[in-house]
Amino acid sequence: MSKLGNLGARLHRGEISYDFVGRRKLWYGVSILITITAIVGLAVRGLNMGIDFQGGAVFTTPKTSVSVSQAEKFAQDAAGHEAVVQKLGSGGLRIQIAGMDTTKSDATKVELAKDMKLDPESIAADLVGPSWGDEIANKAWEGLAIFMVLVVIYLAIAFEWRMAVAALVALIHDITITTGIYALVGFEVTPGTVIGLLTILGYSLYDTVVVFDSLKEQTKDITKQTRFTYSDIANQSINGTLVRSINTTVVALLPVAGLLFIGGGLLGAGTLNDISLSLFVGLAAGAYSSIFIATPLVADLKEAEPQMKALAKRVRAKRAQAAAGEDTPRTRPESDDHDDVPAAVVGPRDQPASRNRGRGRPSGKRR
Known about the structure:
Elements: H1 2-13, H2 24-44, E1 48-49, H3 51-54, E2 56-60, H4 68-79, E3 83-87, E4 93-98, H5 105-116, E5 124-128, H6 130-158, H7 161-185, E6 188-189, H8 191-218, H9 230-266, H10 273-303, H11 306-323
Parallel strand pairs: 1-6
Antiparallel strand pairs: 2-4, 2-5, 3-4
């Protein structure tokens, strides 16, 4: 940990630096590849929408010896739809059938009880109509759209429109990757998933704003110097906050990983999968986009401005001059009248030696 802290201090002071902005084309390529994969997954497999969005029924049984695979077969035969069955900690089963006609719930429950050798009254049924599912889905989209609009307005006011655009691109990047992973894995999309998405968007935005705040502070008088371009300072901002971003991301991922892999995987608490997967994937994608997407994109947008182009030209000229050794004391060019006289350091012209005789001595006749 002390080594990591020392590394962070050296990055913050600028003693060492990793060229994130200079390699932005590589990061863009990686992000485009991941995003295309996510979009293909969405197009081919689609999202496994829960009953809160499609409508359907959830049956909860008491403790039973029926296995999950057997319950899935019984539910499919009784309802005519595919079922998702989860083992509960009490020994019972949670049977979720999306898209079924709720008017047939009683008949389905009786059939399930018969196949599982249970009392129909011991099976609890929760029903969600299709209209309610549509309303929930519309509210989720409305909430996401309002969040995006407010984010863009805030960043445009607090920083500038280029940073707002870069942050919006990063957020869309995070949403696309997270939903694509959901499609590829096949996890059910529930209201908990939407909550997880909104949570990770806020986290990703926080990480991005930290870098943007540092960048804004360091570029106040950028055009008054000729040492660094906007991209150079953007890279310094990323390096200065890099260890902080890594630390906060790791600390946030550890408990979420516990929910996903231990709670959902080992202990079988399937109800945790919907929110934990969105949090885990979204936190990782948000940290990546803050460093590799948002800030390099801001640098690209700013470097397109005329004044930043002029600054970059001056910086390159100065660096070329230094590389060629022309940053040494300038010499006076040879004049046409004194072609054979070597140039001297710029300053007062040398006077003939005879004119300097007697200077510094007391006035009077020479003896």
